[in-house]
Amino acid sequence: MLSMNIMTKCIRGSFVPFGAMMYYNDRKYENNAFHLVRKLTMLEPNVFREHAKFRAAALDLLRSMTEEQLYFPLTHLESNELLKLVEIVVSICEDVDTPPDVLLHGLSFLGFIAGLVRDVKVILFTPTMQPSRGDAAAPPPLSLSHSFVPSLSSPSPASRAGQASPQSRFTREANGKLAHLLAPHQELWQHLISVAMGIIAYRDHAVSASSGVVYPIFEAHPPFWYNFVEQFVASYPKRKQLGIREALSILTNASESQEKFFSEVFTFRQALRRLNT
To answer: GO terms for molecular function, please (predicted)?
Structure first.
């Protein structure tokens, strides 16, 4: 835990010349951060549940790495290790007893992961970029409702590329490597939407941060959102299903921009609360 706290202070402080280290090919940060994060993937879930300070330190480190654009050590993880890391953070965020500040740190990391869905879609829609079918870490084929099935309602990767904010070549390369690691795990995106929408619908903290997890996936591939809508509606009694669908349509109709989606999240919450009273 001490090592993670020190690493976080180094990342968030202004006293470590990371740019110079990368320029001179000094890999001390890269190697140490990689080994710290990799060790997290080797721990059992109960470690994070039973040790609150350790859990907070781990998520603060991941948040700092992604927010400060120093997440490139994650590219050295194996595909299953990166998925395990994401699953650990998801599990912490799903826990209703997770403190609000730790929840925000976790959702910040998951928001970064959700943003990679665009790169993953490019890979899966480009045959020469697709992960090898012989990859031992790849999961079995998924049902069509959970995968990147082409759809007319989903803009092409090329059309989305023009809307993305400028990135350095180094950042693009790191994102591309992470996307390749996540590409075999197409069930991840549906799960991230469900977890984040669960927080939006039923909890009073981190609503905006949860929206930052949902929207990139909805924007990149709407079928994931529509599949969530069907599952969410089906989880309610039949007498409430029409009202629930109408409440969700508030968000469905706010897909034109991230700002519009965020602003309508609170309208959705109010509509849902009226239905649940």
So the answer is: nuclear export signal receptor activity
